[in-house]
Amino acid sequence: MAEPLLELRALHKSFGGLRVTDGVSLEVMQGEIHALIGPNGAGKTTLLHQVSGTLAPDAGRIMLGGRDVTHLPMARRARLGLARSFQITSILPGFPVLENAALAVQARRGSSFRFFGRASREAALNAEALAALAEVGLEGRADAPAAALSHGEKRQLELAIALAMAPRVLLLDEPLAGTGPEEAERLVRLLSGLRARYGVLLVEHDMQAVFALADRISVLAEGRVIATGTPAEIRADAAVRAAYLGEDGA
Amino acid sequence: MSGAPGRAERLVPWLVFAGLAAAPFIGFGEGHALTLLARAMIFGMAAVALMLLVGGAGLVSLGHAAMLGMGAYAVVVLDHAGIVEAWIVFPAGILAGAVFALVTGAVAIRTSGVHFIMITLAFGQMAFFTTSSLAIYGGDDGYTLFGRTEVLGARWLEDRLVFHFVCLGLLAGCWALVEALLGSRFGRVLRATRDNETRARALGFEPWPYRLAAYVIAGAIGGLAGVLLANATEFVAPAYLAWQRSGDLLFMVILGGLAGPHGALVGALAFVLVEEWLSHLWQHWRLIFGPLLILCVFFLRGGIVGLLRRG
Ligand SMILES: Nc1ncnc2c1ncn2[C@@H]1O[C@H](COP(=O)(O)OP(=O)(O)OP(=O)(O)O)[C@@H](O)[C@H]1O
Ligand SMILES: [Mg+2]
Questions:
Q1: Contact A91 B204 (CB under 8 A)
Q2: What average pLDDT does this structure show over A196-210?
Q3: How far apart are the first and last CA of chain B?
Q4: Closest atom, ligand 1, to C-alpha of A55
């Protein structure tokens, strides 16, 4: 089997006495959507924080493309090909929509220590940014101030920014939350099409979407992975039903 | 602070420059008026530099007067050594501001918010007390220059009109520089780190190199303004570095509006002119000036130039 694109090895993280990540190991392969599900407070976002570099794990390792990135700052991990969409929308509200994505393109296209020439008029950056907006269906809002977007549109922009980074690994924290049913359907189709280009670690509460998209699912409960398997295996798992799916009625 | 400047607002800097260029010929040509305008333009330059930090990078510095002080004391040190050539004095002043900014900025940039305000204030006070203790340069009493800086031996800057246009040219140059910087790739990253630092990091931008570069550029422009300030008054004293001066500069930037460097231009002009006008009106003018500034901050959310924008 090929080397995993992203590999978490026995990660531990506690907040005071609360164990939020308790020996989590999992892998994301190239071309795979690995979904992470679990009840509220299971520690999914905290896990993504450790992968992206927002939080440092207490113990364990994070490997990106075979390279140990456990102690690298967030910006370095991003430059190594790790893109993140946040559960709590994190865009540049003072920038036009297009420039949100264009800055993501700029980050991987030449030096940003260029002091002259209007960045907002760089056609090459804008073209790629517009393509990323088009993928999420936001190209019609390119010139709007990002702060003026609706909640759902901000979620789309969040995803477009991640795509514009052209990463190797995508960390998506509830990309469908807050989008309408039509948008959700569109995004599911989009994510499904993206699979080949990236490895995706997807946190999502929409079970229909998860079971439609995921190649593999890991179930997190109280900071521990209680099951990993194909969607069919997860559906059949008794422990999972008890811990999660039962409550959700899915 | 958000939203692109409209057409009317884009005219602002050009109107300011045109007004300043015409001023000597439409009744503001005598000594006192030109002295006042030179002062406004010099503080305008420093304010434009400070705007790069406050409006561009979100770094609120309360030590910017020290940058002017470095430029002004570079003139003093060279004057004391008998060097008055502009091609040496100006680069030296700019370098002094930039080096001071690099050294203090390397420390200050590690902090943010209130801590950044306090540490820049502390560095400013250190510079203030250092200059106060330099007995050979007059200590607290200051240092009177032998004369203005010369250009290849010619004493052009002694001419008030020439000096006026030198200040105007350099002010326009600094404005254009900061305007270009903010729109460039560099400036876009800088603005992103202010807008949402986490997002900037998640995109792969470590904020500190951009912030430090902006701090050094602002220091260099501050140094240039300091050289001009020394020449305008032909006198340099530690009071030039006082924290009150840094506060004034910060007020100019906020008063004018943070939408762009043109706000700082307008803010500096308004500040210096209103200050002058009030000081003639009443000897306790500071009693009105302070509250007036506070009212401006509360009611002119986008600053003076923000009035040109609806909604
Ligand atoms: N900075 C923190 N300090 C203390 N406790 C925290 C902190 N961040 C998260 N927690 C706690 O850790 C637990 C896991 O939180 P986390 O946000 O990772 O859950 P989640 O699985 O993403 O939940 P949700 O599905 O609601 O998004 C929760 O009990 C939360 O209260
Ligand atoms: Mg969460």
A1: no
A2: 91
A3: 12
A4: 1
